[in-house]
Amino acid sequence: MESKWILNRRRFLKTAGAAAVAGTAGLLEAPKKAWAGEGKLATLIDLTRCDGCRDLPVPACVSACKRIKTGTLDEPVDPIPVPFPSGKVEDWSKKREVSDRLTPYNLIYVQKAQVESNGEKQALFIPRRCMHCDNPACATICPFAANHKFENGAVVIDADTCFGGAKCKTVCPWEIPQRQSGIGVYLKVLPTLMGNGIMVKCDLCGDLLSQGKEPACIGACPQKAMAIGPRGEIMARAEALAKGIGGHLYGKRENGGTATLYVSPVPFETLSATLKPAPGRPGLYPVERRMEKTDGLGKAVLAAPALGIAAGVAGAFSFISKRKNRLKGGE
Amino acid sequence: MSERILEEQNRVVRHGGIELAEHWIIALSGLVLLLSGLFELPVAARYGIISIPGLAWSGDFITSLSVHYAASVVFIAASVFHLLYHGLAGERELLPQKGDIGTSIAVIKTFFGKGEEPPFGKYLPEQRLAYLGMAVIIAGLILSGLVKTWKNVYAPDMSHAVVLWATWLHNIFFVLFVLAFVAHIGAILLKPNRPLARGIFTGKIRLDYARHRHPLWMAAIEGNRPSPPENESSSDEALSGTAGAAAEAPSATQPDSAPPPDPGAAESSTPATPPEAGRNGE
Q1: Which residues of chain A neighbour B71 with C-beta distances below 8 Å?
Q2: Does residue B18 sit at the A interface (CB-CB below 8 Å)?
Q3: Quick one: pLDDT band at residue B268, thresholds 50, 70, 90?
Q4: Do A298 and B149 touch (CB under 8 A)?
Q5: Which of B185, B187, B191, B210 is nearest to B14 (CA)?
């Protein structure tokens, strides 16, 4: 799993240099190779460009994602074990064509928001997928380390070790990971009592990135509404773009920061108000990183050994002194 | 060292205040860790634990993580304190000694009526082995837990290999911790060991019991060790230093040295043979 993320430093320097030159060519020209290098990546989604592929039955990014992910999941067993006590099996394998929400077989979809801004009615289209948060609770609290944030910024679930307990979905502020029952290691342990499948979400097309290619959705976009590149560069582009159009950013601070930046001409509060969050259809509301509240205690945990050392050494010193005094007949 | 004989009460002080505090702080924080750690698996909502009064928080992973962290601070500080305090003071009575495995097997056989127990020092050989086992488990839990905590707070993108190791070691040691806890309670429930249970609450155990089952320890306290010594550590200097006036030192083979009149003694009757007396639990 990890090996595909181990990237070559020399290639990075070479491509990053090339990207720096190429970067001036156009704000939204995806740097062709930079994202194959070492270092953190980020993606930019420009809502001024995305038109939801109105002429197509399914937006190009969604089709491309479906296409590249076809056959990557094992086939669910039949019948799928019924989990105790809920009895709730989540089987999307017979509805793989669904493209208007997130499912284990549809890792990106495009939301439509009808908004009125500056007296004008307009439709905005918002591609939605995993935000690849900077400090993702979904990954850090996975009890089996099946979900992990890699050095390049991609948050990836390993289908081979995921039990489908859906803890990641519970702690994700957008409830992005989707469950497919009947697949995974849980079948070999206690299928009705522990776990319930595998969790699936966007992995930023790690296989393509390792080949120096861009994620399928980004490459397929006819409007070039999405870009991927070195984090600093993408952040700078997003901010410059937002500033240029008097627009707004989403994803920079949400959930403590993410590797996905949306740039919108209308405020996200306005967009959020028109989007009704539903299962597989996340909102665009403000999000605080809940786990941040535990960081103080976490730091105290890391300091606890020092506390124990100080107390132990002081206690032992005092004990030994007393013992010496006693042996000298002091007592 | 607070070990001393209280003839009037038919008691001997086995643990000092520091040892009792260490034990209970580690035990209670360990239990909180065990439960809150369990709740880090998605079990509480699935199995209705959240509907148990007082456990509604168990279904919220962030809250149970906070509880886990809070208990960890206490658990880690107490464990490290224990290691350094007793390590630097040279107290090694709880560390396994040569022959402990064989002796433990012999002792376990006596529980089934086979053979007789040898005379013991302060700790039973199986206690020393169990201590080492629990110490290894706790060290494994702490070290792997610290890596996981570092990842949570500072480095969510640390090497996946390191995170996998830390996570799975933490999970495996968690299972071993549960098993060790069950074995620990099981050992206390064994009839011959029951007189020891009082010690972890009050620090004292029955003197007549100690004279029968732990004669080597008693001899050490009373400054009249039989030879060859079964065990005991370098801290014996301290022990002999504190070996109070005390009564006549009973030897391992003279269990009849009369305990003073005492209700505890009445319970257990004046021992006729060492093993019998030891098993007349309270």
Answers
A1: none
A2: yes
A3: very low
A4: yes
A5: B210
- Three-state SS string over chain A comes to CCHHHCCCHHHHHHHHHHHHHHHHHCCCCCCCCHHHCCCCEEEEEECCCCCCCCCCCCCHHHHHHHHHHCCCCCCCCCCCCCCCCCCCCCCCCCCCCCCCCCECCECCEEEEEEEEECCEEEEEEEEECCCCECCCHHHHCCCCCCEEECCCCCEEECCCCCCCCCHHHHHCCCCCCEEECCCCHHHHCCCCCCCCCEEECCCCCHHHHHCCCCCHHHHHCCCCCEEEEEHHHHHHHHHHHHHHHCCEEECCCHHHCECEEEEECCCHHHHHHHCCCECCECCCCCCCCCCHHHHHHHHHHHHHHHHHHHHHHHHHHHHHHHHHHHHCCCC
DSSP letter at B204 equals E
Q: What is the number of residues in chain B?
A: 282
Chain B residues close to A135, C-beta within 8 Å: 156
Contact A148, A139 (CB under 8 A): yes
Closest residue on chain A to B238 (Cα)? A323
- The C-alpha angle A109, A115, A117, rounded to 5 degrees, equals 135
Question: What tens-digit pLDDT sequence spans chain A (331 residues)?
Answer: 333 333 343 443 444 444 444 443 433 433 444 444 457 999 999 999 999 999 999 999 999 999 999 999 999 999 999 999 999 999 999 999 999 999 999 999 999 999 987 788 889 999 999 999 999 999 999 999 999 999 999 999 999 999 999 999 999 999 999 999 999 999 999 999 999 999 999 999 999 998 889 999 999 999 999 999 999 999 999 999 999 999 999 999 999 999 999 999 999 999 999 998 999 999 999 999 999 999 999 999 999 999 999 999 999 999 999 988 888 875 4
- Rounded to whole angstroms, how far apart are CA atoms A196 and B217? 55
pLDDT digits (tens, 9 = 90+) for B78-94: 999 999 999 999 998 89
Cβ distance of B79 and A308 shorter than 8 Å: yes
CA distances from B96 to A120, A292, B93 (A): 81, 44, 8
Q: Are B275 and B22 contacting, i.e. CB atoms less than 8 angstroms apart?
A: no
